[in-house]
Structures are given as C-alpha cells and as structure tokens.
C-alpha cells in the first residue's frame, strides 16, 4: 500500500483519479489539495464519491506534506507542476503530471505555445513521456512522468504501427479529432454550457492547437524524422470520449494492415484492435483505460484510415496516469483498471 | 464460486448483469441465452465486454442446461419466466426474475394489467419480492425472487420511512417520476430514437401504467391498509436514471424528518440519505446500486416532498438482482457492487 | 411600423426577441443595449442572426435614446427595469418587462424573495400582468407589462379552467415542473455545463423558489381566495422547454373535463388543448408561442392531472412579450408568431 | 399559388417540407401520400403541425391525383421516384426528387451502389442535379430535379471555390463528415436509439458509402477531371446538422483564400462565408437553408481546411428542394426560407 497525493483535485481529471483509485487495492489517497476548496470534503463536492472517501477533504497544497507521499499526481493547469515538482523529487516523491508541463522536451517550444517561460527546464531531461505503449521500460524507472494529452494519446496510438513499419508518408498526416466537452475542463465557460454545446458540432483551433507540437514530437520519435501533421479538433456534444480519425498516404504496399495492427498491440493490455471492418464507438470505452482501434483502406486505394477511440478522462488522462503509477511501483499494470465500460 | 445463467441476455438488463458480474469475485456466468442471437459472442454484440467474456456466446434457452446452474436470472419480457421457473426450481436452481412475472401476488390483477393469463400462479405463494430494505430475511431463504421494477424501487424506498411512521395520508400519495430512455428497453421503437426522444420531455401512461399495481401493493404492505396513489411517469432525455418526486400530506407533526430518514436507512448499504436541503442528481448514481434520498417540507407546511434517485438499470434492475443473489448465497451484500458512480 | 428597443440583449430572452422579431412585419428593432458588449454587432455574437441584423450593434443603455422608441423590452436581470421604466413611461414609451420586476403586486413580498428593496413601487398599481388568456383587455390599454415567468405561465394556463370552474381544492395544488437549461440563463455557471447537466435529472429549490409567489398570486386572482401550492422545479437535460405536471384534488363531479378545457381555450390562439388521452411533448412547441395542454383523471378517481408544455423562451418569455406588444399596438395577436415548431 | 404534392410524407424530409411550406406564401400542399398511414391526419402524426394543416391527411400514392399537381416532391426511399416520375412528367407535373434516384448520371454506377437495376434510365438525360450554386440556370428550366444528398451538398459547396480555381490536388481530397442522427431517417433501428447513439461518436461506412459516387461526380463536374476522394462519415449525437471538415493539398500559391471564397459566394443567398478565422457551428443553421463556410490554412502550410455546416434536413434536403421549386416556378429564390435559425 502506497500513499499518494493529488494536487488540484477539483477538476475532472482530479475526480476521475479519485473514482478510479477507489478501486485500487494498493493505493491510499492520503491527501488532495485545492486552494479554492480548502476544507471541503471531496464527497460534498462530488456526491458520486459518498461512501468512498467520507473523510478526505481538500487542503492547501503544502509541499512538505506532499513530500511525505510516495507519489503525487498533478491534475492542475499548466505551470503548477513546474513550481512544485523539483522539491518533491528531491524528497524522493515520484511525480506524475497530468498537465502539459513536461510533455515537450524543448522549453522554448513550450514557451511559444503556452505563452510563458518554462518554469523547470532543468527537469526536462529526466521527464519521461508516459505513453506505456512506447516507453514502458523508461516509465518503470522514472521519477517524473509527463502523462500524454488526450488527443495525443489517441493519435499516436493510431499512427504508431504505420509509422514504425514505414508505410505512410510522414509529411502528409491528417488527424481529424472529435472530443466530448470534458476535454475543455470544469471551468464555467459560456461555450461549454449545455445550452451552447449540445445539439451542435464545431471545429476549434483549426489554425493551431497546443496539442499539435506534442503530437508532432511523439510522431517524430516514432518516425525518426520530421513529420507534417494537420490536426483539427472538434467539440462534440457528449460528456466523455475522443474519436480520432487518422488519414495517411501509403508509400508502399502495406500488406495485411489488420495483422500489422494486431501484432503490434498483441501484448498491450490497454489497446484493443477491433476486427477488420469495425467502427469503434467512443461509448465502448466510457470510463475505462482502453484505446480501441480499427484500420481501413477505402477502395483498396492509397489512403489508409485509422479510427481510434479513448475516454479522454481515462486513457486520455487519469487512467493512463494510474497505468504509469502501476508500472513505476511494480504493480500489475492493470491494477485498479479492470472494470468494463458503462454501456449503454 | 457459483455458476449462473442469464435467460434473455440481449436487452439492457442482460448486458448490465454481465457488466456488473464481471467484477463479482464469486460468480461465474456460465450460460447466457437468446433465441435471436444464438451463436453470437456477447462481446461482439456489446464491445464494452471485449476482454471480459471473450468466449461466452448466446445459446438457446435450454431448461436442462439452465438446470445445471446454481442460479438463473431472467432478463426477459413478461411471460418467459412463468414458463421456465417451475422446472428450474424443481432442479434446485434458484430463480431471480427481473421481469414482472412474479411481482404481483394476485394472479388476476396480473392478468388484467398484462393482458394474458398468469402462467405460473402456483409459484406466487413462494415468490419473494426482492426489495432487501423491506424483505431481507425472506430473501435470504428464498428460491424465487421477483426483482422489483425500476419505478417501484425508487418510489417505495422514498415513501417507506413516512408510511412506517404513519406520518402521511396513505390515500393521497402522488409520485411524479422521470426516467431515462433505457427504461423502455432496447427494442427498436420510433419513440425511443434519439431524434424523437432527445431535446424533449413528456409524460406517458398518465391514466394508468403497469407499475402502478406493483407500487400500490408494496405501499400497502408497508402501510397495512389501502393506499391511494397517483403515479405519472415521464420520459426524460437521458440514457439512465430515475428521479422520483414524491408528495405526501402530513397527518401529524412529523418531528425531525431528516433524522427519521437517516435512522431508517442507517444500516442499509445501498440507501444514502443526503444531507438536509439536498437535491440528489440521477448522475450521482450512474452505474451503481445506490438509491439517494432527500426529504423536504416546503414552507414548513403540510406537504412533504421526497426526492429519490436510482439508476434504473442497476438498483432498478440488475444491481438489485445481484444484491438479492448475494443475500441468497450468503455473500457480502455488496459483493461486486462497490465501484463509485461514473461522474461526470 | 413601430420602433422598439431591447435592454439587456445578450441573454437568451434577448436573442430570442431578435429571432422572433426578424419575422415581424410591423416592428423595427432600432436599438439593443448591453453594457458588457457595447459596439459588438449582434450577428457577431449570435451567428444565427447573420443576414438578418447585419448592422445592429449593442449600445449603452441610454434612457434618452430608449425614450425615442415606441416600446422597449427589458430582457434583464431583476432590478434594471425598476430603474428605467418610470422615465420611459413619462416619455410615452411603452414598457414590456420580461424580468420579475413588476410581476408581484406587493412590493414587500417582492423584497423578501429578491433580497433587495423594490425600486419602483409607485408603478405597481399600473403594471399589468401580461398573461393574455387572463388579462387581454387590460393588456390592450397598458403602458407597462410584466411578462409572466416561464414556470408561472405553464402552471397558470394548466390550472385556469379547473379553478375558474371551482372543481378542485385550491389548498392542495401540486405543480411538478421540468425545465430545460436555458431557464437558468446564459451565465457561465458550473451547474449549467453540458458535462454537469446532461445525462442527469435533479430537482432544485424544493423548499422555495422565486416563481412560487408569482404563481400563487396568479392562482389567487383566478380563484378569488387563498391557495396552497407546492411547487417543485426540476432541471432537465435539454435546451428548451417546460413540462408542468399539475395535480389537483377534485371537490365536485367534474363532468367532462376535456370539454371544459376545450371550451375555455376555444378562442385562444396560443393555447392548444390536445385530444383526450394525449401526452404533449415539449418538442412540439420548440420555438413557438403555443402552450399545449392535456387533462387526465387517472382511474376516474379524485385526482386530476394536467400536462402543460411550453417553450420557456417563447410562450415563457419572448414570444409572450411579443404577443403582448401585438395587443398593445393593435396588431393581429399572432403577428410574427405563426411559424410551426421545429420537429424533430 | 401552386399546388404541390408530397410522396412519402411520413419521414423526416417529408415533415420538414410541411414545416417549411407552411410559411411559403405561394404554395398549397394539396396532397401527401403514405401507404402505411393512409387516412391519418398529418397533425396527428406530427403535433408541431397542429394549427397549420388541420385537415390534410395521408392518402394512397395515386398517380392520377398526383398528376393534377403543379409539382410533386418525392421524400421516399430510393426506387419509388423511378416508378412514378415518368408518368408525372408526361402530365406536365414537375418532379423534385429528394431521394437518390436521379443523382447519378450513370445507371450502371447507380445499380452497383444501390443493389438493384435503375428503374428509369431514360430520364437520366434530362434530370438536373439541383445544386443551385452550380446549376442555377438549368434548374430554372428543369422538369425533373435530383435534389443533392446532405453530405454531398456540404462537401461540394466547401470544395467548389478551390477546385474551380485549380488550387488543390483533385487526387488527394479528404472529407471527414459528421452528421446528426436524422440523417439515418425515421426508421426504428437499434443503432439510432437515444440509448445507443447519444453520448457516443463513431464513424461508419469508412470503406465505402453511397454518397461517395455522388460527391465524386459533382467534384468531377467542377474539376473537369477525375478526382480521388476519401470520404468518412460519422454519426454524431445530435438531431440535426452536418459538419464537413474538408482537406486539400495546395498545388499553387493560393493567394487570399478568404477573398476567393467571399467572391465565389458573394451573390449566393444561401451560402455564408464566415469571417476569417471562424469555426461555424452546426446549430447556427438549425432549421434554415444556409450553408456556412470557413477556410483555414494551418501554419501557412500546404494543407487547406474548409469547415462547412448545413442542416441536413434543410439545405441537405427539404429546404434545398424548395429552393429548387422557387427557381423552377420563378418565385424569389428565398421565398419561404427566410426565418433565422433557432439558437440556442
């Protein structure tokens, strides 16, 4: 049994950590912080947690107390983990950051996209990008994990087999992604109101979105060369889920694409390659840590289409964070992550 | 470890049994039947079950094979359990019927509401109404359980403390109930299409609904006298959840209503009395077996209002069925039913 | 052609006035005010208005300029009309207030519910409650209209025939009302987010809501005696619509209830009594000024149930405001209000 | 005033024709047919039409009676218009077919995609593809109109300026399209249930969809050469609306793309080019005949992205059909099509 803390626990990734960790037999959530809700019990804010965390209350984010934890999750806006991570690491506490703070290896690029100086460039060298399907061994030994973003997770897992096999033109990638509204967080914004966002569909950030450099970096790592990616996210009228539709231009005879995907992910506990001809639904992963994939080659032509679905709050955030924790602490990788999706 | 079978597993209560039992450490689902889908694997029909029941397939409902189970759930339209229950009971198999077949003790009343003769009146004497909060001891020794309907569960749990305490006029009960669309089942009906049922609210069955006699029977059992109940169900644009708003006319000084409710349910694992002044949301029980209640007395007047929420597929069907199974087989009552609700 | 102004045009009732008035052949919207959006074109804020108001922009609420209008709508939070109405009336401008400022005739009662002193008690005497089905003649000659609230409109129209006929106990009225989220306005509140309010149902204000005294006052006017009303509003996961389910206890043989309702509303252009046995859907009035009603007497017993649906933004606000304007200026009552509802 | 008939009026495009034509001052809907609902009044089936078509009832599709109409709309499954169109044309009745029957000019290609022989190949020569933005003059003189499909309308209007200007590679077009569920019609299918289709997103027909050859034919007409199009439709949890995200590879310096689009559509009453940087929402066209477009060039690179939204039932079907009718009969093109979109 390890003790963990959560910094910034009032948002959706925070409550999702609590929901999932309630089922984790080897983790005790000993501390959760929130400046705005200090003293409030988590089950008063999130009634779904009544009966699970009946005494846990939000506290001030105190570095010393956090330093007594075995691991600390950051479920915070960008910038917060920069300020605290170094001190925690020195105390021997592992840091699993769900924000964007350590995802880009280049501090300057981070600054350009996030509009502020990078607060902890000295830690970039050791931060491990927490996508187990690419970096499992590094994760096991990491002290500091940058949990991938939701869009980047779904896009990278979809392109991975094709890029590794060198089958598609890395300069002509198009990722058309659709996300439920929890991707925009729990902030009170007019655009996220039910009256505004339901019964409608729209793109956003078509000319540039912060997840673009993260995805590009990840795809470069696979490809070992520059990539040209067009990434258009869309706001979809549903609570959870990301559906990424990925397009690539074949540069060689791909052979059996279905087999390629099945083999690549044969041993991955959280990637499910659907049968040939499938169209995975986001609801099939509602509440769980699985990414479901299907690969199509319309009309046997030059374009390959990958359909990739995840729950943005689980495999796209809190579930993947726990998967990383399991790897770091030597637990079974799927500990606490075994329930089926809620459907319907 | 016991072996259970599910008859009629293609509907929403069937797949919900599978979802919940996947987390039950003492139950092996050895058989699931469907005439229409014989041979189809359950995970092909319900992709959320991929990785959980990878070999289980629908089979013909064969009484002999079902008789080899320790218990059989009926997740069928009414009439099916009538035909099979007797033979199973003779073989020593316990029967947990989620349909309406054994809910009404009076076969004639059943016939009037369901438009056909009762198929097994000889079993009515022994059937136990599976509402643990009222009949826990009988359930423990039962061979045949009639799992309460979704509306009846939420209404009875809400009125129970008031009627037991003799505080309200049993002749003037009004239950205004709102249900998500899964209450109408998985049948392909125009009225249940997203294009028809979303972005709208309507009552139905205002002049009489099949759950009325069941609720009235249950309230009579509590009250030990006739009751006058007006019950108006409403179709609500959401997948899961029932919100029952219950009105009663006080006949005596009720004292501390909050304390009354808290005491009545102090030891109930699946009834959660919310703090005074609360308004429980159906989403706070999404996917779980809990009924959350709040009691109000507007303007300190003569009318008491109880707000009662459940997930119609869990406490209103499959979860309650498993709660009954746990009691019948001596397992901890909440075995397999401990995950928090999915929220948001 | 008359010139009208709209004060506070950025909220949902403001944009709905614009949408409806775009189809009104005798009204020119010459001015719309908003402190926060001064200078912004309405079609930039509300793209559905592109092509309709391509030059109209929000301006400061200037009393002098407003005084040049024939009529001014207030689509503002409470308190604003108090401050401006008197001056406008003196200038000969008619005032149609969609807020609660002039709905209650008793300034003290208003203060208790709204937590501030009434700002214009001297105008209460002349303000007319703008429910045409009750006060049509007074409206025609009014200078100042208090447009009824959304819940009060649906509840009063439902009870009206029964109370006028003296058929139900005025001391035992129960109004269980379900509203779409636009009833909560366009403010950025966490509870109104799609991620919070969709896929869920909840009551609110069960112990007391600001529309209660307004409804009670209206029902007293019909009944000519005190009434006892329990009113429980519910937040429903849809954009528009109110469904009020109204319960009354019969005190006399009601005779033919269907005929009673049909006769009462035979000449009302915006009240549609549905055929006997109907269950009106809120979507059947989406975008239009109609209230659809159905009356039931379950089991031929003592309880009568009225189902009443409106669009909260139209008959519950902006449409009814225009209906009042039409009456005040001698236009056909349904001018600009003739389009069918959008369905599906 | 002309007399029109509607064949197959029970589906969504049929009721949408009725809704829109109720506002058309020069059209009298004299006849509507449905084999399954003969004798039923349209307002009993569609309560939103109460007060608008109080006597119109569904009748048998009788060719002679239909031949007395000035124009007949077919809102039918494919194959029906094949059987009736010829006889109507001989009688001098204009035919506006909302189905796919006359969209493809090649009868063999039609047969391959629709799995049956083409029933009226002799009419293909004269059928005009009813996209006014491409074929306005031909439409004015047409007797037989093939109203474009919903996806094809949104895709062609988006690519049109780019292809006409020869700016993109016609061999590398990718159309990622998202549609509300009314696109699947009013048939009672499990996949269209609220419980199945809400709170989820999925692609379908990724390997080939019937709208593909129609779009390809239309783009070839613009391009005057073969095109290579990848088309992936997605089912989106909303009632109405299509959002097409269109990708093209620039082959030349495009200059000012915004100006290109604005100029191409400067005189089009139903195409609205949004300001530079916009992301149109489908709800901004809910219920109206407008297509809103925005054009982006991410990172000033080689990929151009066009965002195109329509209401699938209006510009994607019934509204465009009426636009065609207006052109054919010399009415103002926007007669009956001037109301603003319903928003929120």
List the helices and strands and how they pair.
The structure is a homotetramer of 344-residue chains.
Chain A lengths: L1 E6 L4 H10 L5 E7 L8 H4 L12 E2 L3 H5 L3 E4 L5 H11 L3 E4 L9 H8 L13 E2 L2 H9 L3 E3 L3 H15 L8 E7 L14 H4 L4 E2 L7 H13 L5 E7 L6 E8 L7 H8 L6 E3 L17 E6 L6 E8 L3 H15 L16
Parallel strand pairs in A: 1-2, 1-4, 2-3, 4-5, 5-7, 6-7, 8-10, 12-13
Antiparallel strand pairs in A: 8-11, 9-10, 11-14, 13-14
| Mean pLDDT across all amino acids of chain A | 97
Structural class call of chain A reads alpha/beta
Q: Pair with the most extensive interface?
A: A-D, 51 and 51 residues
Unreliable spans of chain A are none
Q: Output the CATH homologous superfamily of the largest domain in chain A.
A: Dihydrodipicolinate Reductase, domain 2
CATH architecture of the largest domain in chain A: 2-Layer Sandwich
CATH topology of the largest domain in chain A: Dihydrodipicolinate Reductase, domain 2
* Portion of residues within helices of chain A: 25-40%
Percentage of β-strand residues of chain A: 15-25%
Termini Cα gap of chain A: 34 Å
Q: What oligomeric state is this?
A: homotetramer
DSSP summary, beta strand count of chain A: 14
Shape designation of chain A: globular
Task: Please write the string of helix (H) and strand (E) elements of chain A.
Answer: EHEHEHEHEHEHEHEHEHEEHEEEH
**What count of helical segments of chain A does DSSP give?**
11
Record the strand order, biggest sheet of chain A.
3-2-1-4-5-7-6
- CATH class label of the largest domain in chain A: Alpha Beta
Domain module count of chain A: 2
The main sheet of chain A comes to: 7 strands, parallel
Radius of gyration of chain A (CA) equals: 20 Å
Function (chains A, B, C, D): Catalyzes the NADPH-dependent reduction of N-acetyl-5-glutamyl phosphate to yield N-acetyl-L-glutamate 5-semialdehyde.
EC number (chains A, B, C, D): 1.2.1.38
Organism (chains A, B, C, D): Vreelandella neptunia
Catalytic activity (chains A, B, C, D): N-acetyl-L-glutamate 5-semialdehyde + phosphate + NADP(+) = N-acetyl-L-glutamyl 5-phosphate + NADPH + H(+)
């Amino acid at each position: 049994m390890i003790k963990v803390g959560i910094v910034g626990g009032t948002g959706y990734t925070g409550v999702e950590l609590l929901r999932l960790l309630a089922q984790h037999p080897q983790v005790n959530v000993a501390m959760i912080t929130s400046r705005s809700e200090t003293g409030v019990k988590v089950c008063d804010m999130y009634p779904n947690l009544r009966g699970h965390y009946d005494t846990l209350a939000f506290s001030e984010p105190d570095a010393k107390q956090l330093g007594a934890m075995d691991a600390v999750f950051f479920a915070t806006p960008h910038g917060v983990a920069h300020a605290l991570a170094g001190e925690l690491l020195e105390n021997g506490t592992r840091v699993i950051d769900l924000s964007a703070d350590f995802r880009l290896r280049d501090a300057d690029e981070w600054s350009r996209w996030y509009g502020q100086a990078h607060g902890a460039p000295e830690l970039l060298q050791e931060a491990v990008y927490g996508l187990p399907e690419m970096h499992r061994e590094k994760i096991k030994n990491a002290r500091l994990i940058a949990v991938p973003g939701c869009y980047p997770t779904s896009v990278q897992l979809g392109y991975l087999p094709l890029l590794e096999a060198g089958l598609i033109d890395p300069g002509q990638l198009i990722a058309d992604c659709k996300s439920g509204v929890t991707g925009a967080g729990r902030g009170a914004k007019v655009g996220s109101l039910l009256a505004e966002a339901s019964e409608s569909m729209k793109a956003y950030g078509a000319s540039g979105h912060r997840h673009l450099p993260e995805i590009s970096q990840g795809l470069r790592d696979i490809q070992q060369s520059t990539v040209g990616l067009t990434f258009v996210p869309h706001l979809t009228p549903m609570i959870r889920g990301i559906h990424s539709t990925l397009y690539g231009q074949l540069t060689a005879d791909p052979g059996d694409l279905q087999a390629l995907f099945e083999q690549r992910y044969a041993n991955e506990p959280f990637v499910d390659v659907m049968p040939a001809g499938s169209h995975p639904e986001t609801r099939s992963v509602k509440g769980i840590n699985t990414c479901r994939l299907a690969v199509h080659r319309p009309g046997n032509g030059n374009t390959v289409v990958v359909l990739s679905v995840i729950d943005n709050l689980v495999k796209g955030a809190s579930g993947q964070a726990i998967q990383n924790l399991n790897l770091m602490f030597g637990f079974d990788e799927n500990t606490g992550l075994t329930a089926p999706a809620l459907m319907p």
